[in-house]
Amino acid sequence: MMTNKRQRSTVKIDVDENQFRSSCLREDAYVLFDYWANDDAVRKALHVKEGTVKKWIRCNYDLSYEKEIENIVEYHQNISTKGYESFIYSGDHDMIVPHISTEAWIRTLTNLSITEDWRPWFVDGQVAG
């Protein structure tokens, strides 16, 4: 019987106590996350490919993304009734379209059946969704 064991590691992050205190006074709950997300040991533990992300920035709206299609439900309903198969993928940490919204959308396509369970997908060996 195969078991799936996760390795637990401890990452020590040096925090400037003065900055931490001032941020707590401002009730900025994210300042520690900024330290954590930009720490080299954390990035290594999360398998972030070196050089792909410079500095993690909270609420980074400077993404090169262009919305081309407003609603694809009709499109998928149309092709699925013609017998075409669909490959639907969704990241589980997407705050614009979270995976539960994707699952709800799939349920609206009543003539579809799920042929494979949800699973991670990879780009160049790195988990992408």
Automatic annotation (TrEMBL):
It comes from the Eukaryota. One of its GO terms (biological process) is secondary metabolic process. It holds the Pfam family Peptidase_S10. Transmembrane segments: none annotated. One of its GO terms (molecular function) is serine-type carboxypeptidase activity. Belongs to the peptidase S10 family. This is Serine carboxypeptidase. It comes from Papaver nudicaule.
